[in-house]
From TrEMBL:
SUPFAM superfamilies: S-adenosyl-L-methionine-dependent methyltransferases
InterPro entries reported in the protein's UniProt record: PCMT (IPR000682), SAM-dependent_MTases_sf (IPR029063)
Keywords (A to Z) from UniProt: Cytoplasm, Methyltransferase, S-adenosyl-L-methionine, Signal, Transferase
E.C. designation(s): 2.1.1.77
Protein name according to UniProt: protein-L-isoaspartate(D-aspartate) O-methyltransferase
Organism: Cacopsylla melanoneura
Lineage of source species: Eukaryota, Metazoa, Ecdysozoa, Arthropoda, Hexapoda
Length: 289
């Protein structure tokens, strides 16, 4: 075969492959374009269309709490696009899809009067959503280690949602969320908003008897899966796809074994509970050495 004929055949092959790939990914391209929304209502309609919002409770709260209010200076992107948004200070706000998924998984526990711990609260958007769901008799502690973000979230809530700040319904705390917040424990819900490399064992003892903890767990390449743990330690690994998150890592120093095999770590944790349910804290301290 001449070099000219070979080059022509290769070009045709590449063109056919490209066209096939285009049509194969057409739905994905259309789906991506559908996430470029201009309003809160458009964003919610898309989240419903793609099944990220599945319940009236989550739809209602996301309509009531406007995402734009929590991004003081949007950089380049519309705040309603389904992508993470920069908050400055080396932190970002998770995408609308991630927030919707978290609220769906937690909705049965975010009942009126519930107590909530929001770790890595960032902008305060999800804090506001959860405060709305637990009602005036509920309580949400929002822990964030970046003091500027704590002040910004507090200011946003007092400016746009002062009713959620009444009667101490929301309390912003500047601190290290890796230790939880024992002052408000036990909690019906603990949400770890920043991706971590390790299962947050230290937080388990701050969940009440029928509470739920969820956290994004993954490696340092930004690929995480959502883990939900209920008491009495009913483990769920909710794989909502390999979602690439550009969220700050709450693990600022070495706290434990690197997450190589999460099933192995959970098996180790179950063995600890089976042998001696009261020795959880001791075992976790051993794991963190």
């Amino acid at each position: 075969m001449s070099s000219t004929l070979f080059a022509s055949s290769l070009l045709v092959s590449l063109v056919v492959s490209s066209v096939s790939a285009f049509f194969a990914d057409e739905h994905q391209v259309r789906e991506y374009e559908d996430w470029r929304h201009e309003s809160n209502d458009e964003m919610i309609q898309a989240l419903k269309q793609f099944n990220h919002i599945q319940s009236p409770q989550v739809e209602s709260v996301m309509r009531s709490i406007d995402r734009r209010r929590f991004i003081e200076r949007p950089i380049m992107n519309n705040p309603y696009w389904d992508i993470p948004q920069s908050l400055g200070f080396g932190s970002v706000m998770s995408s609308p899809k991630v927030h919707a998924q978290a609220l769906e998984i937690l909705k049965e526990h975010l009942k009126p009067g519930a107590r909530v711990l929001d770790i890595g609260s960032g902008s305060g958007y999800l804090t506001a959503c959860m405060a709305h769901m637990v009602g005036p008799k509920g309580k949400v502690y929002a822990v964030e280690h970046i003091e500027d973000l704590v002040e910004q979230a507090n200011r946003t809530m007092h400016t746009y949602y002062p009713n959620l700040m009444e009667h101490g319904r929301v309390e912003f705390v500047a601190g290290d969320g890796r230790e939880g917040h024992k002052e408000g424990a036990p909690y019906d819900v603990i949400y770890v908003g920043g991706a971590v490399h390790y299962y947050p064992f230290k937080l388990f003892n701050q969940i009440n008897g029928d509470g739920r903890l969820i956290a994004w767990v993954g490696n340092n390449k930004g690929r995480q899966h959502l883990v939900a743990i209920d008491r009495p330690y009913d483990y769920h690994n909710n794989k909502l796809g390999n979602v690439s998150l550009s969220i700050k890592n709450l693990e600022k120093s070495k706290m434990g074994e690197y997450l190589v095999d999460h099933d192995e770590q959970m098996a180790k944790f179950y063995d600890t509970l089976k042998d001696n349910p009261m020795s959880v804290e001791h075992e976790m301290l051993y794991a963190y050495e």
